[in-house]
Amino acid sequence: QVQLVESGGGLVQPGGSLRLSCAASENIFSIGSMGWYRQAPGKQRDLVARITSGTIKYADSVKGRFTISGDNAKNTVYLQMNSLKPEDTAVYYCNAAKVVGPYNYEYWGQGTQVTVSS
């Protein structure tokens, strides 16, 4: 079982920056695929960014503003968020997807609130 702990959320003004961290209980390289999702009130949970075996995917709405990265030594994945907009307000969740033999496992963190407001 992979445990994920997010941190770094908070209140920021439009145009500001935040960096979210997701600490995993095992080596992120061995996990295989990790990403960030977000869920605004009354909306579904959507992909923000994902890194899988070195391949990175971003939602169109965050391209050029957000950057996902990982530090294997710290078992941590980051989401650097710049030029934040009010519509980025949501609970952000870290996700890990791991394949073990014929089985796919998916894990979620508890979420961290990001609020963009003046």
Structural summary, described in words:
By secondary structure, the chain is mostly beta strands. The chain has one helix spanning 28-31, and strands at 4-7, 10-12, 18-24, 33-39, 46-52, 55-58, 66-71, 76-81, 90-100, 103-108, 112-116. The strands form 2 sheets. Strands 2, 4, 5, 6, 9, 10 and 11 form a 7-stranded mixed beta sheet that branches. Strands 1-3-8-7 form a 4-stranded antiparallel beta sheet, with no helix packed on it. It is built from 1 helix and 11 strands, in the order E-E-E-H-E-E-E-E-E-E-E-E.
Strand portion, in percent?
over 45%
* Uncertain runs: none
For the biggest sheet, the summary is: 7 strands, mixed
Radius of gyration: 14 Å
Count, helices: 1
The sequence of SSEs as H and E is EEEHEEEEEEEE
For the secondary structure, the number of strands is: 11
Whole-Å distance between the termini? 40 Å
Share of residues in helices: under 10%
Structural class: mainly beta
**Which term fits the overall shape?**
globular
Average the pLDDT over all residues and give the rounded result.
Answer: 95
Concise overview:
By secondary structure, this protein is mostly beta strands. It is built from one helix and eleven strands; from the N terminus they run βββαββββββββ.
Task: Write out key terms for the chains shown.
118 residues; mainly beta; 7-stranded mixed sheet; 4-stranded antiparallel sheet
